[in-house]
Design brief:
298 residues; 6-stranded antiparallel sheet; 10 strands; globular
Length: 298
């Protein structure tokens, strides 16, 4: 049986408004692995060795090239991998704007070549990383690569950070609440969300409610779920229907299935940033080198 090990690293402080984490995934052994990613923000996926395929729920299985980028994901993604090394870069909404300059809805729920967002020089990234042997070297190389890319580009409009912060605030439970918080009309909020986040406001709020509940119940037995799921759900049946939509199966089946690397990934992400899922990370408090997080790796 193959063994998977995943490590998370924080980017340099000057990148934390743009990048949530880096991760390095090692799979060693004779067997292929299969696991499921929950809905998340955009991610760069890099295959240093081995082969990967993914299935975004509701779509067909597709191969993963050496350097790809997935936009905002509304639903889960099943990944199938052979032994080898993979890497990822989690992109926050402000980072999407500054790093790509592309409309987010053109990449939402899709896996595309990294060159579609970063241009032809995206092909240089994997060979550079293959030449490095240790985590610290990889992190420093990614920091340099992304800082160089950000340097000539304007920051994202302030409204992107404000909208992201309001989205992760559990007090904003409706499109109207969210728009009012930002002093926008609902129509203005919809245009903003499609351009910068990739999905319509109601879909983002629905996804956020699910992710809050997923994070709350992942470490407790099924009998305790009723008191932990988001109160916006009418009842547990409502929550189970939503769970099936976002992850394609019931909560009991999901938590009973093997998780060769995502259980470990959630634990380590939570230890580093306070939440086991990327979609619950709030915008970074500062970009001046200060941080409430101690250390850069788990």
């Amino acid at each position: 049986m193959s063994q998977a090990t995943v490590h998370f690293f924080l980017p340099a402080p000057a990148l934390r408004h743009a990048v949530s984490t880096y991760y390095v995934l090692h799979i060693a052994g004779p067997d292929d692995v299969e696991d499921m990613f929950p809905p998340e923000w955009a991610n760069i996926r890099l295959v240093l060795s081995g082969r990967w395929r993914v299935k975004i729920l509701g779509q067909s299985v597709q191969p993963v090239a050496e350097a790809t980028i997935s936009g905002t994901q509304e639903r889960g993604l099943v990944a199938y991998g052979t032994p080898g090394i993979g890497m990822g870069i989690g992109i926050l909404p402000e980072g999407w704007v500054q790093l790509t300059g592309q409309p987010a809805d053109a990449f939402a729920n899709r896996l595309r070549p990294l060159s579609d967002a970063f241009g032809p020089h995206a092909g240089d990234l994997v060979p550079m990383l293959r030449a490095l042997a240790d985590g610290d070297g990889v992190v420093e190389a990614l920091d340099r690569y992304l800082l160089d890319r950000l340097a000539p580009r304007p920051m994202a409009p302030t409204i992107v950070r404000e909208a992201h912060a309001a989205l992760v605030d559990a007090g904003n439970r409706s499109v109207e609440d969210w728009a009012t918080c930002l002093t926008l009309s609902t129509r203005q909020l919809e245009r903003l969300c499609l351009r910068y986040f990739g999905l319509r406001p109601m879909r983002l709020l629905r996804r956020q409610r699910f992710l809050r509940s997923l994070a709350a119940i992942r470490d407790v037995p099924p009998g305790s779920w009723g008191t932990l799921i988001d109160p916006h759900y009418v009842d547990q049946s409502h929550f189970i229907r939503e769970f099936r939509y976002f992850l394609g199966m019931s909560p009991r089946r999901y938590f009973a299935r093997p998780q060769p690397f995502m259980r470990q990934a959630g634990d380590r992400r939570k230890a580093l940033l306070g939440s086991p899922v990327q979609g619950l990370h709030a915008p970074a408090a500062t970009d001046d080198g200060s941080s409430d997080v101690v250390g850069r790796t788990v």
